[in-house]
Each structure stands twice: as C-alpha cells, then as structure tokens.
C-alpha cells in the first residue's frame, strides 16, 4: 500500500535530479546561446524554442510512449533506460527545465555590466578565464530571482509524472482515490504537501538571494 511518504520521496527525487541535471546542462548551453557563432547560437535557440513552445506533458508522452514505436530505438542500448518510466520522466523534466534555465542564464550573461568586463580585460584575462571567473559567477547570482520561479514551476510540473505510472504525490493520491472512491481527502492532502514544499523552496531561495545578491542592495547612508 503506497503512502503519501512514498509519493513525497518520489516527487523530491524527480525535482532534485531534474533541477541538478537541468542546471548542469543549461550553463554550457547558455554560454553557447550568447556565443558569436551564429550556427551554435541558433541550434541552442531551436532547442529552447521546441521545449519552451510545447507542453511538458506532450514532451513526456513523446519520450515515454512515442519513442517506443521506432525499431532503431528499441534495438539500441538506450532502450534499457527509455522503457523505464522513472528515467523518461527525469529526461523530460531535465530537458524542459534546461530550456528555460538556459534563457534565464543567457539573459544575465548579456546583461553583465560593462565595467566588470573592462576590469577583467584590464588585468589581461583571456575570454575563457573572464567567462569562468567574472561573467558566469555574476550571471548565476543575478539569475537567482528568475530561477526561483523556475524551481517552483518544476515542483508543480512533477505532478504529471503519475500519468506515466510513477507514484509521485499526485499519483499516490489518484491510486488512493481509485481504491477508496474518496476524492477530497487524498487530493487535499497532496495539495497541502505541495503548498508546504513550495513554502520551503521559496524560503530557501530567498535566503540564497539575500546571501548572493547582497551586493545589489542599496547601501545605507
């Protein structure tokens, strides 16, 4: 018998792994998105356009159900993983959040203050050294407020994982409902847990903003 604790653990796993892999993928993609190489930048733009322009539920269904119709997929090494609902959900969530996070970080890279760039060049930093030590750390800090919204959106988006048989919070609530025919209690409990998780994430992200964006706060005279 599945419990809300099992669903909570599954939801946190889906959220944590998707955000981790998505951020790791988004950083190099954001650098490529802001590169002067038009083909490279265009390819990243197309990736972001596809995943930001289509519903996450459709992306999940394509990966979990759609890829199985291709013989070359079923005959490849990847099929051992793609037939697993958990892996497909992580993959869909990762690609989706990576698309949004790429644009968030890329926007902050473009908005890097010219004074920081000039200071780095004045001490002889190369383009890559300046990117690693100045531009990226500054961009990632300034991206925190927008990224906070993406984290919350991803938490809510994990609710669709139950549609591919995973027992996340919503999936567990749906199974309890199918067994007890009581819709209010399980879904209301799931809503309260999502609300508590959202509150905790907002609190953590606000603390991170206060710590890493303190230099942007107005100075007291």
UniProtKB/TrEMBL annotation:
Its main location: membrane. It holds the Pfam family BPD_transp_1. It is found in: Cell inner membrane; Cell membrane. Keywords: Cell inner membrane, Cell membrane, Membrane, Transmembrane, Transmembrane helix, Transport. It is a multi-pass membrane protein. The keyword Lipoprotein does not apply. One of its GO terms (cellular component) is ATP-binding cassette (ABC) transporter complex. The keyword Ribosomal protein does not apply. One of its GO terms (biological process) is amino acid transport. CDD domains: TM_PBP2. The chain crosses the membrane at residues 42-67, 151-167, 187-205. SUPFAM superfamilies: MetI-like. GO terms for molecular function: transmembrane transporter activity. This is ABC transporter permease. It comes from Chromobacterium paludis.
